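Sanity check record (used in CI):
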Amino acid sequence: MGDFNSTVDQDGAIIPSERRITMKELENHRSVDTGVWIGIAENVYDISSFLSQHPGGDAILLDAAGTDATEDFFDLHSDEAEKLLPAYHIGRLSSSTEPSNLISPEPQEADAPFLQRDAWKKVVLHEKQRLSHDTRLFTLKWQHDSQEFGLPVGKHIFLRLKNPISGEQIVRPYTPIAARCESGEVDLVVKIYNDKDAKKCGKMTTTIDLASMGSLVELKGPIGNFEYTGRGNCTISGRECYTKRFIMISAGSGITPMIQILRAIASDDSDFTECLLLSGNRCEEDILCKDQLDSLERENKRFRVVYTLSKPCDGWTGCRGRLGQELLEAEVGSPTPGSAEMVLLCGPPAMEATVTELLSKNGWKDRDIVRF
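Expected output for Cytochrome-b5 reductase:
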């Protein structure tokens, strides 16, 4: 943290700093070298020392550095995260009208990638397809049919949509399963969380499900600390890695980054990376994109897909139970020395924590496990 941090009174309570920080100053602190500052609710925080502690990795924080991240923070974090902020407070964001170099740019030319990390880009909700009782495939379309989307394999995007009833701007991260540059379209698979108890409803999922065709949606990205660059090569928070085999473990909608990576490998005849996918779900109809996964497995000898259901129907012949110790020991086991294997993990926090603990007991190191 910097020299202007908040102080602590005699009772141990944090006294916020009254230093005024301009938008220009904030924008100049976007890296480890300059200091990592973010703006939240008209306050500025120096989170340089928190990068290594962030549960979602440091890449997302570095992406937000030097910007007003108010919407992203409150839409993606719990009250517990908000309680951590005072310790990193260094001042208040000045209301100065000094020009910012991070304002939304003019419409892009077709030869530039559509996505921009620092600006929200408008797309149109072009099509909605029902995949199951609670899952939809949304197709979003941008202006230029031939424009590159600009999303590296393994990265995700932020989606922002205004609730037409409450007027609330909702932001959530999603991993597209496909982008078609030739038609200017990107596909999102979204599980719709409806519940009689409004507190259990998914704000974004219910809002986008109710949106009419032609509605405007905003995207920003790419976001994330993992990128697959092909033929077993990838980067994790800037660190270059190589793997001969991915062990993909997902639950529910956590399947989407796995599909993205599987498709990339399958599309390259010179990519011989092997993939084992363990997909956990409640029942068979909850398995997202099962037809696509089965097709990828049939057409690629180096792919293997294993489904397990916690509440299967009587006719289910696959694995039963959660993604637990028995399945992990049978299908994953311990890492083989020199085998160049990597685990990709995506699902609810409780599932990720449980699987990580079980893998650790079997000898897997944290550096070999990527959490989306």
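The first strand starts at residue 7 and ends at 8. If this sentence no longer matches the regenerated tokens, the check is flagged for review.
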